[in-house]
């Protein structure tokens, strides 16, 4: 039902497995047949080592000498498509999430994917504990994310354990570590803007037709980083907006809303933004 076929060994020996598939990627008139060999052995294997990596994204590129094949309009059965895949490891902002990939290398040379194994346990170790957080959901594997207030840090910050539970007792089959590079750009400036340049008190005649001046100005605070990126901190709890002029005629409400408090007085309002 889930499209997964499992091959289970029942005794020692060798056999062949034939897989027949009609590709849906391009129109073809014949099926693709793949023959695999399978060997069942009674020799026990052990875990040589574990590989642990964190992937924040995957990109791919498709190329072919036959352009119509890439677009799915080719009727040729002999053209070749090349797919290049790249995994990314970019932890450059708070809230970035990476999927943890864990592989066990067995003594017979085979690799066993543990990424979604129920016995996998992943934690943050060392200096990464203040900048990273790991979490998992049943059947979804483990994720590692950059926490709020994180600092740049790098090294073998992930520890993964392959565990098994028997009769209520949990034991560790193997342990591995993985590198994470949290590289947060330095902030170099802040841009503070208001949605409108003038506001009126809600009871002032200027706030109604035909003048219709707005009664609220929304303040937007954007931090500029050394790598050229920008991030809106207007609703971030760490952003502090303070009136340094005009506190007798206006106030700041709901984090970043500038509201007039006087229906008769007018003047200039100046706001300062700081980040503790």
Keywords, separated by commas or semicolons:
single chain; 276 residues; mainly beta; five-stranded antiparallel beta sheet; 19 strands
Give the topology, please.
Blueprint: E1 13-21, E2 32-40, E3 47-55, E4 57-64, H1 67-70, E5 81-88, E6 97-106, E7 111-113, E8 120-124, E9 132-137, E10 141-146, E11 153-166, E12 169-182, E13 187-194, E14 216-225, E15 230-232, E16 240-245, E17 250-253, E18 257-260, E19 270-274
Antiparallel strand pairs: 1-2, 3-6, 4-5, 6-7, 6-10, 8-11, 9-10, 11-12, 13-14, 14-15, 14-18, 16-19, 17-18
Summed up:
The chain is mainly beta and 276 residues long.
Tell me about this structure.
- This protein has one helix and 19 strands.
- The strands form six sheets. Strands 3, 6, 7, 9 and 10 form a five-stranded antiparallel β-sheet that branches.
- Residues 25-30 have low confidence and may be disordered.
- The longest helix is centred in the first third of the chain and has 4 residues, at 67-70.
- The chain is mostly beta strands and 276 residues long.
- Helix content is 1%, strand content 51%.
